[in-house]
């Protein structure tokens, strides 16, 4: 089955595309376990262009590409590239398109990955464009949920945190709606998910979405939280104020379902108390590990 030429937004994918990645990710996980040598990207060059900070997304893309036999090209940081001399984003993409067979790009501007895909002949994968989309994170989140719970449909999933600015949340909300999960949204005041995103998911998939203000996770199968996205606030004082107040403590997870999993795209800042971190519910390190098989599955499905 054909995947997509460029992976820019989860909104561009159909269920058959996501099903393909979920199935292939499990095959990749198995292949990794068996230490199989894979070579579907043998002789190819993958470029990772990260104009915004990253640990997991960049490193797991690089590791996944190498595990498929590709070589990786990257600037270690933007400060040593010609961006500091004033080179434009579009010129950088045009150049790198000539040096590589697949480009993974992260940039603070919403729409930057789509723009890169228009400029490049080779496939482009969005590693996060501002507060907009983070499709590969969503695919790995969905894979993690399905792997742990054996299904997505009918699960009660609570999304908690800065739902206004987090691209991980926007993307995941769409994926969950498409697969029939019941979504509960809890955000600090002023950081609620945009109406547009909620309405789209409701209209397209008839998804059940509930908004709550209390930190009550009693019916949840999955609690997915994220940090306050400080860099997307115009007022840093405001961001720090919310960050200080927003935290899940041991009290907040009293009375939760025994098999609840707590997910987080990471990085965590102060929002998770150490007792929660050490609880049996914490599932984020396992989740982060899934970045490798899922990103292998994604690149393997693209025509490189
Ligand atoms: C996220 C991101 O960059 O959007 N990180 C990630 O890719 N795992 C989450 C975040 O920065 O809060």
UniProtKB/TrEMBL annotation:
What's the source species for this entry?
A: Fermentimicrarchaeum limneticum
> Might you give the EC number(s) for this enzyme?
2.1.3.2
Q: Which residues bind L-aspartate?
A: 85, 167, 227
Q: Which reaction does it catalyse?
A: carbamoyl phosphate + L-aspartate = N-carbamoyl-L-aspartate + phosphate + H(+)
Q: Name one GO biological process term.
A: 'de novo' pyrimidine nucleobase biosynthetic process
- Tell me what this protein is called: Aspartate carbamoyltransferase
The Swiss-Prot or TrEMBL record describes its family as follows: Belongs to the aspartate/ornithine carbamoyltransferase superfamily. ATCase family.
Question: Which parts of the sequence belong to the Aspartate/ornithine carbamoyltransferase carbamoyl-P binding domain?
Answer: 5-146
Q: Which InterPro entries match?
A: Asp/Orn_carbamoyltranf_P-bd, Asp/Orn_carbamoylTrfase, Asp/Orn_carbamoylTrfase_sf, Asp_carbamoyltransf, Asp_carbamoyltransf_Asp/Orn-bd
SUPFAM superfamilies the record matches = Aspartate/ornithine carbamoyltransferase
Keyword tRNA-binding in the entry? The reply is no
- Domain (Aspartate/ornithine carbamoyltransferase Asp/Orn-binding): residue spans on this chain: 153-301
Keyword Ribonucleoprotein attached: no
Cite the entry's keywords alphabetically: Pyrimidine biosynthesis, Transferase
Q: Which GO terms describe its molecular function?
A: amino acid binding; aspartate carbamoyltransferase activity
Pfam family of the protein (one): OTCace_N
**Pathway involvement of the protein, from the record:** Pyrimidine metabolism; UMP biosynthesis via de novo pathway; (S)-dihydroorotate from bicarbonate: step 2/3
Quaternary structure, from the entry? Heterooligomer of catalytic and regulatory chains.
Which Gene3D superfamilies does this one have? Answer: Aspartate/ornithine carbamoyltransferase
What this protein is reported to do is described as:
Catalyzes the condensation of carbamoyl phosphate and aspartate to form carbamoyl aspartate and inorganic phosphate, the committed step in the de novo pyrimidine nucleotide biosynthesis pathway.
Please tell me where carbamoyl phosphate binds in this chain: 56-57, 106, 134, 137, 266-267
